[in-house]
């Protein structure tokens, strides 16, 4: 028979699932939560780790509070029971600490009480360890330029970076095994996973870390099979403490290689070794891989790198020019960041082309030079849609007058229409933020940035609002 706290939490989950939109986000962040009790309008839930607690409080507390108040009432509060990880040598069961939700008290006053661990000094040596085998010098195949210090953090990659850094600092002590990072090409997967590897090497110098792309892994296996050295291949990979496989989707259709990787994966996972994988899509969308392998990809944490926003793209450009010792006017960098919107690799490629043209032709780096190169190199540029057309389309969709966008009214439908118009103007035109704000309601660039952030947040939490955006976008694509 289902008890009260389970019923309440089940009702909350129905609301969260309906508003979240992303099945993957629900499976990752809400399904593992367990209801513990409800007393005096306070619902206590258990989360798997401090990282879960911090992430939920940062990204989903508004949605969680909304669901809680709807189910439990206006005075509803939330309390967390957080499972604390034990070190590998600890013999005790994981402990838990109680933490309040933000809607219960001021988090500035919270204290994390670290649990004490019982250790046993009478350690029994493992008879299967071969002396000296860990002293083999294995090249990690890591690019030193791909460090965390060179990785620009933004809203698009914050979760993946935080998870990766947590893994690097706590090898063998997290639930993120495997850590599965996915995104479209050119958004920084390879950089991030190598940054994790570099951080691990610095913190744990004796750990054996190996970065290898799936194509190389497959080629190595094929060569080992031809030379009758399959056992050597398997033994080599079973010695790795941290195995990073990039672009795992390229193992699709390679049945024998998948079988070998399956055995390696199982061995490493059972030995509490860290596995880090990247792909161009989440595990549920991978084609041509064995189901038993896909199920293992879902054991840990899957997290996405999204397309970077304007501020992140601009910071990437500034960081690269600073590291290269090159001075370029902010106006030029802002122009590049505003027009190269989908791919970090392409963003850096345009910058390199500008520097090359300047050096080879002995030209000064100007805005005109940047515009010329951007126009030549960027394919499939968005059609030039005017701000006036955007305003008319948005107003027609929401059935309001264009002149109302300029009004000072704080009516929700007018404010939201203005924000949507600003969002599309930033996405579909080459106008500066200041120009967009001036033409849509006489606002400044900060208001435009706030509007774009608000629209992005609403798309993630409100399914109906997301359909509005998709419907309007279809009208633009028909032009």
What would your notes on this structure say?
- By secondary structure, this protein is of the alpha/beta class.
- It folds into four domains: 106 residues, GMP Synthetase, Chain A, domain 3 (2-Layer Sandwich); 168 residues, P-loop containing nucleotide triphosphate hydrolases (Rossmann fold), CATH 3.40.50.300; 68 residues, Helicase, Ruva Protein, domain 3, CATH 1.10.8; 91 residues, Chromosomal Replication Initiator Protein Dnaa, Chain: A, CATH 1.10.1750.10.
- A hairpin with a 2-residue loop joins β1 and β2.
- α11 packs across α12.
- The radius of gyration is 26 Å and the shape is globular.
Content of β-strand = 5-15%
The largest pleated sheet is described as: 5 strands, parallel
How far do the termini sit from each other? Answer: 57 Å
Order of helices and strands: HHEEHHEEHEHEHHEHEHEHHHHHHHHH
- Which sequence of strands runs across the widest sheet? 6-7-8-5-9
Number of domains: 4
Indicate the overall shape: globular
CATH fold-level assignment of the largest domain: Rossmann fold
- Mean of residue pLDDT values: 80
The count of DSSP E runs of length 2 or more, i.e. the number of strands, is 9
Radius of gyration: 26 Å
Spans of at least 5 consecutive residues whose pLDDT stays below 50 are 85-97, 102-135
CATH architecture title of the largest domain: 3-Layer(aba) Sandwich
| SS content category | alpha/beta
CATH superfamily of the largest domain, called what?
P-loop containing nucleotide triphosphate hydrolases
* CATH structural class of the largest domain: Alpha Beta
